[in-house]
Protein: G-protein coupled receptors family 1 profile domain-containing protein
Organism: Steinernema carpocapsae
Amino acid sequence: MVFWNASQFSQLVIAINRFVNLYFPFRYEAIFNKNVTSASIYSVWIFALAQGMPYFWADCTLLFDFKSFTFGFIDTRCSVFIGYYLDFDLSIAVVSTIAFIDFTSFLKIHHLQKKGSLHLMRKDVKFFLQTWVQAMASIAELVVYFWVAPLAMDNKWFHFCLTTLSWMLVELVDGCVF
């Protein structure tokens, strides 16, 4: 969970960096100076570690459920809070924010290309599309894991596929895109 969160927060910082570069090109170096860049990296890992620590507490941990063949939170207030708000809601918020920032960056790129003041190379367009594919894969995985899979609790193999394989598939897509 720590590394999943660090990955998401890193992608958010990258999206913000790209946005600032496009919308504030003359102030970019002042905004993303060495101190801000270092603070961004430290913040990513501090938030990721802070969010991952509760998983080590006995009341907030995940257990393997042999009936559904998946990991799930034990039934406590802590685990419900961690599982739903810190895992699902925060992940959806971060990925949606990345998608919004990248969409506004896309609009700026499109505007600059239309004016003829920006000429993107093919690799730049591919890089931009990679971020969209990664964001859409993450959103799809979260929706399948938290909303679709619970509807299939009666069939343990189907539930297993919807949870475990969707989790693995998003990591596969992320690796292939990278």
About this structure: The chain has one domain: 1-177.
